[in-house]
Design brief:
Plays a role as an inducible effector molecule that mediates Fas resistance produced by surface Ig engagement in B cells. This protein has 1 helix and 17 strands. By secondary structure, it is mainly β. It has 2 domains: 79 residues, Lipocalin, CATH 2.40.128.180; 81 residues, Lipocalin, CATH 2.40.128.180. A hairpin with a 2-residue loop joins strand 14 and strand 15. The longest helix is centred in the middle third of the chain and has 11 residues. It is elongated and about 65 Å long.
């Protein structure tokens, strides 16, 4: 196994199907560019005369578009920035916190990461899109699914405040799970 000597950047990207690790190697003498997603080689270019530019690839089950920008800062120094769906990683994650809810929980000794995509009401658990059943209840909606033999429910109720909108709560075996901050 070749040692990653030209590793210049590592990013962690939280998507609905999990947290993905993106690693980038840049040989500033050979112009070599290698992109790894979750340890798997996605792009390899051995000789590049142009040391600046971009590499585009996809990440995760939903094939989310990612681009690494390589810019010269000064002399032989380079800056590497990651864009997800055309937005800087920071902007993408800020926007994502508005469109998704994430819960981290442990059930029967197993850790689970549950993500609700608010726009579609899709529920993901440890990288799998879950089968769900939705129902209207007196004060909002309930989305039911099961994880590791446990029955789970995401309750959606109005906050009564226009700015806050709808509040989503994960309940597992009558226990409310606090939302995780990623």
């Amino acid at each position: 196994l070749e040692k990653m000597t030209d590793l210049v950047a590592v990013w962690e990207v939280a998507l609905s199907d999990g947290v993905h690790k993106i690693e980038f190697e840049h040989g500033t003498t050979s112009g070599k560019r290698v992109v790894y997603v979750d340890g798997k080689e996605e792009i390899r270019k051995e000789w590049m005369f142009k040391l600046v530019g971009k590499e585009t690839f996809t990440v995760g089950a939903a094939k989310t578009k990612a681009t690494i920008n390589i810019d010269a800062v000064s002399g032989f120094a380079y800056e590497y920035t990651l864009e997800i769906n055309g937005k800087s990683l920071k902007k993408y994650m800020e926007n994502r916190s508005k469109t998704t809810n994430t819960w981290i929980l442990s059930l029967g000794g197993t850790d689970y990461r549950v993500v609700l995509e608010k726009d579609t009401m899709d529920v993901w658990c440890n990288g799998q899109k879950m089968e769900t059943a939705g129902e209207f209840v007196e004060d909002g909606t309930e989305t039911h699914f099961s994880v590791g033999g446990y029955s789970c429910c995401i309750k959606a109720v109005s906050s009564g405040k226009r700015k806050e909108g709808i509040i989503h709560t994960l309940i597992v075996d009558d226990r409310e799970i606090p939302e995780a901050v990623e």
